[in-house]
Amino acid sequence: GENVEQHPSTLSVQEGDSAVIKCTYSDSASNYFPWYKQELGKGPQLIIDIRSNVGEKKDQRIAVTLNKTAKHFSLHITETQPEDSAVYFCAATKAAGNKLTFGGGTRVLVKP
Amino acid sequence: GAVVSQHPSRVICKSGTSVKIECRSLDFQATTMFWYRQFPKQSLMLMATSNEGSKATYEQGVEKDKFLINHASLTLSTLTVTSAHPEDSSFYICSAMDKYGYTFGSGTRLTVV
Question: In chain B, which among 50-89 make CB contacts under 8 A with chain A?
Fold first, then answer.
């Protein structure tokens, strides 16, 4: 089955700096890659996703890049703010309706 | 956007009793829902996939007789933890598929004492 690895497990950045989280996946058939933000005691919230037919997607301060050949994708957060502090999860799946496989999570701390 | 409502948000039960958690899709129909368990500082682990009108598909190592899943309608799936024990204490999260992707509920913190 699919295996998703996520790095780093923790990330501390100064407010205003950029944060980058990287994930690799094992199944070349995977074609949908969402990123979720989870705050303490809450369920994951989708922040951005990318499908295999594009290499990059942006939404304001958040961007995701996908390298299908290398089987890795990354989340980029620019101009970080304290409210960006949370746990971020990457995930992968072959197709809509299939189960998601999650990475191990990255705990991001933005220091004011 | 799509909304998934999960109840209760917190529940404390005595060892040996059963607890039911509800997951509702509020503004869309969900033929498929997923149930996850999350231990502190860990990732989400899929327990089972719930399909409306049919039996759930459980992941390897998940006891189907202990974690009963019912998906009787296109907007409601329930997870019942039977004969709960302290080791079942965890954060349980449901997810539903809509036309845009996967939407998650707010989670249920189960504490078994």
Answer: none
